[in-house]
Design a protein that fits this description.
Layout (H helix, E strand, L loop, with lengths): L18 H8 L11 H9 L11 H9 L6 E5 L9 H8 L1 H15 L3 E5 L5 H11 L15
Parallel strand pairs: 1-2
Length: 149
């Protein structure tokens, strides 16, 4: 029996979901107190690889960064750098909370205290949508509204 397609649930709607709608569909982030490496372990076990030419194992990257000497930073690249590609824009415009969830989980996995979300300057509307998605989280100590987008 196959599980329902949760990742793309609700994509037929127009516009981004509110945080409440997002949580109704996907639920809260899967956190494991006292076990920050659980995501890196799960990613390694799943065999996820990077999309660059080398296809380097993502779990290995996460574990290496978590063991690094300096402070870690997570970068969510929404720049659509590939020719004729608009996948980053589509994902951020329709489901910005999925990107934020992934960035937060990655930051916890590597013990980062900062997340940068890179967006093209040519898309001010997208920046407004991402900022609107970030702001409901600003009550969390890890997010400061003055630094949101």
């Amino acid at each position: 029996m196959t599980a329902p397609a949760r990742l793309i649930a609700g994509w037929r709607r127009t516009g981004p979901a509110s945080l409440r709608e997002h949580l109704d569909v996907y639920g809260p982030l899967p956190r494991r107190p006292g076990r920050p490496g659980f995501l890196a372990d799960a990613v390694a076990e799943a065999g996820l690889t990077g999309r660059g030419g080398a296809g380097f194992p993502t779990g290995v990257k996460l574990h290496a960064v978590a063991k690094g000497r300096g402070p870690a930073v997570v970068v969510a690249n929404g720049m659509d750098g590939e020719p004729a590609s608009a996948k980053d824009h589509a994902l951020l415009a329709r489901s910005p909370h999925l990107v934020l969830d992934g960035a937060v989980l990655a930051a916890e996995a590597v013990r980062a205290d900062m997340i940068h979300i890179c967006l093209p300057r040519t898309s001010p509307r997208l920046a407004d949508q991402v900022r609107a998605a970030i702001l409901p989280h600003c009550g969390e100590p890890s997010l400061r509204p003055e630094e949101a987008v």
